[in-house]
Write a sequence for this structure.
């Protein structure tokens, strides 16, 4: 073992600290040390943050084994006989834990060493990016999940049975017993549990690398009502500015636009230790006999940080929240929030029972000292209501949810769809929903200007397109598009929309447009989309496109990708991913929003790209030379008629400002590929464009550039931006 | 600092290394979080040019003859076109001349044209003399460089030269225009320093 060579210079301390939350004051801190044959006893390790917790942890158990150099060298292998047992080795020079030795079991009794990095007040394994505010957290975390370890740490079961009453015998334990088997006198008190019941689901979402942690045990015990009880929140008026400021200050990473929101993810962090200990029934029942339930720091459960967007909440809603909060019983039992890291010290602000920790790439910094050590010290950049997981109900802050989901519905969702949760739980998502809901509400407000405008748009659109004497096909769709743009500008004129948008900082013009556009789709486009589809269908049928598509499909469908122009060796999607692509085409067809359709198209393109590189020789970069043939190959195996309808729909109705970006590129490529199929003429060199093709393209060109800069020229838009600028100027400077 | 999005279209025969040039250009800025790219056929990179930020939206096209008719969809709205040929393939240089003609006829007015003779690391197999290509480029007032995507030669230079030739955007009049521009500055500068 490599660390044996270091034994000469180190004194080893084996230490395991079990911390349990409890009410009460600072009096309960106690430590028990016992030593090797030399009986080296030390009064704890001074300065160790996990031990010097003070008032927030009333009961704390620390057991230390201090071995001298020789016995440590001999001892490690002996001590670590049992699989998953472990030692924390302390560097005596710094008094900080420096090495985690874990027995991986197996025939050789392999002991693996992991370096523990102590950066300021945080501890982490050097291979891992997870930081913990003290060693106990680290140990407990790795006892429920492996992360970078080869095996989970095994904490002897009997440790959980140690309580304040029976802790005395503890001090007589030998190091071996500590690490291996429960002492006899403790055995009888153990309530056996299967290790599998103490678990913690962890998933790293692939696209953003964000971590999402939830302990299902807590959900099993308490259900997840508390997750959706949005009204049961804290007074947030005083917090608002603090939250906002903190959010700015803590964002060490430069702003990268909306992408940032996607990179955020949550950890529904529950101190695993709390759950574990509770599950053994060793601590007091959390609320029934707890005399001072509001003691900050009496942490015993999942604590989700309040959504920061509360700070932007309308005054009326704020008031309603406060009135709800005035009832002390509104706090779910047993969920006592710790004082927030974001709160200034000494600020007696009520803490939400809900906490969501944001973990952002690259900013695993040691946080300001949390008042409870049971919460992993993830720096919190933003937070939000978990309720935004619900597609439709979420963020309907104006009205309470009509019904509560069954206790475990959400839990199941969380557990099974963690990556989806990670994606969905962005502050922006919630803001988007609020905007959508507000727009929806405005469109239903009787006699309001916007409701009238929407009604008029829907009526006009429903009447249009079908009239043989009127405009047809794409010209009609372009009218619809420009009406949509007008509606959007109308919306942007409303002070309530402006106020909502101003509350969403860090958005560019394009992102604001896209947000408003999406909210508009629901009220304006959704009712008319079937009609628009039938118009496109009529138009495409009449001009013979569908017929050409069909006949050329028969000619081309047997072609392999090389025959379609792909280079030799380029891969195509296999059966499974082709099946998935077909499902995505279907999803794309079913949604009414052109933006969402484009998102689905991008997923298809990604699948195609994945297929291209799967069978290719290494290092080959595939550009359009290969992508277009591959996309064509896929289209020849898809429902091209429906895809043509969707393509037209997207092309004509997507906000023209979006056509230059990635979505625009792949949409153009889809259009081009369909165009290639429908205009395919074997044996005719396509160098010269046919007259027909030339006309079609010219018309297309005109349409696409017609309204491109419309919104940029809007006087109102500048007004909004100026306001935002002033706001930024005052807050940033 | 104002941000300008510049659509750049890549034209040229298949196999001349269009996508390799783009890949080489964006690779040092490649961060899946910042540049969520599906594939090499569309990529973006933002560079600073004087007091502006130029975000290049690079549209690759399929170079096969059969897809030639589709090109207008791609070069529509482009601020610049990079036409790539392979210095070891005379034929690809002739194709380039056809692209220049087509752009003159159907392309956007004022499009900046750059000619890139790629694979200049393979000078032993050279078929297109540098002088000839340079003279041709000068005759049509196009940017000309010989590049090697493989050895990262002159890749950035192409884009720097494009930035230089992009017409200066006319200043928005009045104080509101100024406020508008400054307003963007706050966000755009944060956007790009990562």
């Amino acid at each position: 073992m490599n660390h044996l060579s270091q034994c000469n210079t180190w004194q080893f301390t084996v230490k395991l600290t079990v911390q349990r939350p409890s009410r009460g004051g600072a009096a309960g801190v106690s430590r028990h040390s016992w030593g090797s044959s030399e009986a080296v006893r030390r009064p704890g390790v001074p300065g160790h943050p996990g031990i010097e917790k003070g008032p927030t942890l009333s009961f704390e158990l620390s057991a230390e084994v201090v071995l001298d150099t020789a016995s440590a060298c001999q001892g490690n292998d002996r001590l670590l006989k049992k699989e998953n047992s472990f030692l924390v080795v302390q560097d005596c020079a710094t008094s900080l834990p420096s090495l985690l030795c874990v027995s991986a079991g197996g025939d050789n009794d392999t002991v693996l060493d992991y370096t523990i990095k102590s950066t300021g007040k945080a501890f982490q394994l050097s291979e891992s990016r997870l930081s913990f505010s003290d060693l106990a957290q680290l140990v407990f975390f790795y006892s429920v999940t492996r992360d970078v370890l080869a095996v989970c740490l095994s904490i002897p079961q009997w440790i959980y049975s140690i309580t304040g009453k029976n802790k005395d015998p503890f001090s007589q334990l030998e190091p071996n017993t500590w690490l291996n088997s429960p002492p006899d006198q403790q055995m009888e008190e153990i309530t056996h549990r299967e290790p599998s019941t103490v678990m913690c689901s962890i998933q790293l979402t692939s696209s953003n690398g964000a971590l999402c942690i939830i302990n299902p045990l807590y959900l099993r015990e308490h259900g997840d009502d508390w997750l959706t009880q949005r009204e049961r929140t804290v007074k947030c008026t005083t917090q608002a500015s603090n939250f906002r400021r903190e959010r700015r200050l803590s964002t060490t990473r430069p702003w990268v636009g909306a992408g940032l929101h996607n990179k955020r993810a949550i950890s529904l962090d529950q101190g695993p230790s709390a759950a574990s200990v509770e599950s053994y029934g060793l601590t007091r029942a959390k609320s029934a006999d707890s005399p001072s339930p509001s003691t900050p720091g009496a942490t015993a459960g999942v604590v989700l940080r309040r959504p920061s967007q509360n700070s932007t909440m309308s005054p009326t809603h704020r008031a309603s929240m406060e009135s709800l909060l005035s009832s002390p019983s509104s706090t779910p039992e047993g969920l006592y929030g710790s004082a927030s890291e974001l709160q200034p010290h000494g600020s007696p602000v009520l803490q939400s029972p809900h906490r969501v920790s944001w973990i952002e790439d690259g900013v695993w910094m040691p946080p300001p000292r949390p008042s409870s050590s049971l919460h992993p010290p993830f720096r919190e950049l933003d937070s939000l209501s978990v309720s935004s997981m619900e597609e439709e109900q979420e963020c309907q802050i104006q009205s309470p949810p009509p019904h509560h989901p069954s206790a475990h519905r959400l839990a199941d969702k969380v557990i099974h769809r963690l990556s989806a949760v990670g994606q969905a739980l962005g502050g922006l998502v919630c803001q988007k929903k609020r905007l959508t809901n507000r727009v929806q509400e405005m469109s239903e407000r009787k006699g309001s200007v916007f409701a009238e405008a929407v009604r008029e748009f829907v009526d006009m659109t429903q009447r249009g397109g079908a009239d043989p004497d009127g405009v047809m096909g794409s010209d009609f769709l372009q009218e619809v598009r420009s009406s949509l743009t007008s509606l959007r500008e109308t919306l942007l004129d409303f002070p309530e929309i402006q106020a909502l948008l101003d509350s969403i900082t860090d958005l560019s013009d394009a992102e604001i447009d896209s947000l408003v556009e999406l909210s508009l789709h629901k009220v304006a486009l959704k009712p008319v989309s079937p009609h628009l589809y039938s118009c496109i269908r009529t138009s495409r049928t009449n001009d013979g496109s569908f017929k050409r598509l069909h006949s050329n499909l028969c000619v081309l469908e047997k072609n392999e990708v090389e025959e379609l122009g792909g280079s030799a060796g380029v891969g195509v999607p296999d059966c499974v991913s082709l099946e998935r692509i077909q499902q995505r085409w279907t999803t794309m067809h079913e949604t009414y929003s052109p933006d969402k359709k484009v998102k689905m198209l991008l997923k298809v393109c990604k699948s195609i790209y994945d297929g291209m590189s799967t069978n290719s020789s290494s290092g080959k970069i595939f550009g359009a030379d290969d992508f277009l043939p591959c996309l064509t190959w896929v289209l020849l195996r898809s429902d091209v008629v429906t895809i043509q309808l969707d393509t037209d729909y997207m092309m004509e109705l997507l906000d023209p400002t979006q056509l230059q970006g990635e979505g625009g590129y792949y949409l153009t490529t889809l259009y081009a590929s369909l165009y290639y199929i429908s205009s395919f003429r074997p044996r005719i060199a396509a160098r010269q464009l046919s007259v027909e093709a030339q006309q079609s393209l010219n018309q297309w060109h005109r349409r696409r550039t017609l309204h491109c800069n419309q919104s940029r020229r809007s006087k109102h838009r500048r007004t909004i931006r100026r306001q935002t600028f002033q706001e930024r100027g005052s807050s940033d400077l | 600092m104002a941000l300008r999005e510049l659509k750049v279209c890549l034209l040229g025969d298949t196999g001349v290394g269009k996508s390799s040039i783009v890949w080489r250009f964006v690779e040092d800025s490649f961060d899946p979080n910042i540049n969520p790219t599906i594939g090499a056929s569309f990529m973006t990179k933002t560079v600073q040019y004087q007091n502006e930020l130029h975000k290049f939206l690079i549209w690759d096209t399929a170079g096969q003859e059969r897809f030639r008719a589709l090109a207008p969809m791609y070069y529509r709205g482009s601020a610049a076109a990079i036409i790539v040929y392979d210095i070891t393939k005379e034929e690809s240089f002739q194709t380039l001349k056809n692209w220049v003609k087509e752009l003159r006829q159907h392309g956007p007015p004022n499009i900046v044209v750059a000619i890139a003779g790629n694979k200049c690391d393979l000078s032993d197999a050279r078929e297109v003399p540098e002088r000839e290509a340079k003279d041709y480029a000068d005759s049509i007032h196009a940017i000309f460089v010989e590049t090697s995507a493989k050895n990262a030669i002159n890749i950035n230079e192409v884009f720097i030269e494009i930035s230089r030739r992009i017409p200066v955007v006319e200043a928005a009049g009045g104080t509101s225009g100024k406020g508008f521009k400054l307003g963007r500055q706050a966000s755009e500068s944060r956007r790009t320093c990562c």
